[in-house]
Amino acid sequence: MTITNIRYFDSFAAIGRRAGKDPEAPWTTAQLLDEMQRCCVHGALVYAHQAKEVHPEVGNPLVLAECRKYPRLYPCWVALPHHSGEFPHPHDLLPEMERQGVRALKIFPRIYKHAVDHGTLGELLGAMQETQT
Fold first, then answer.
1. pTM score, two decimals?
2. CATH code for the part of the protein at 3-131
C-alpha cells in the first residue's frame, strides 16, 4: 500500500465559535474544510462547540445543517442524560438520529456535571447497543 492509498478520517472535529477563546481561532466550516484539505484528511466526524458549551438543543441542529452541505462531514451530536426532561429519552433520540443520519454521540460529563454510571447513562448506552448494526 502506498501513502496515496491511505484515507484519513478525523474523529474529533468541531465547528462553531468557542466561548472565551481566541477570537482569531478558526471556527467556521470553511476553515475546517481548508484545514482538512491542507492535511489530506478525507472526512470528519463533526460536533458543534455550541452543543458542548451552550446546550445540545442549540448546537446539534447547527452541526446537522452544516454537515448536510458537505458530504465529507458527518454529524455527531452531543447528548445529555434524559432524566431531567431537557433532553429526549433514548428511545426517542436514537430513531431521530437515524432519521437525520447521525451515527455518533459525544458526552461531556465534566462540563454538564453528570455521573458516568448505570443510573445516569445506562438506558442511553443500552439503547445504543440494541440498535447497533
1. 0.89
2. 3.20.20.140
Q: With beta carbons less than 8 A apart as the criterion, state whether 46 and 66 touch.
A: yes
C-alpha cell at 110: 465534566
**What spatial distance separates the first Cα and last Cα of the chain, rounded to whole Å?**
29
Q: Find, among 12, 7, 93, the residue nearest to 46 by Cα.
A: 12
Each residue of 28-44: pLDDT tens digit?
999 999 999 999 999 99
Q: Is 101 helix (H, G, I), strand (E, B) or coil?
A: coil
Q: How far apart are CA 23 and CA 30, in angstroms?
A: 16
| Continuous H helices in 16-133 | 29-38, 49-53, 56-69, 90-100, 109-112, 118-131
Nearest alpha-carbon partner for 68 in 84, 50, 46, 90: 46
The 10s digit of each residue's pLDDT in 70-102 is 999 999 999 999 999 999 999 999 999 999 999
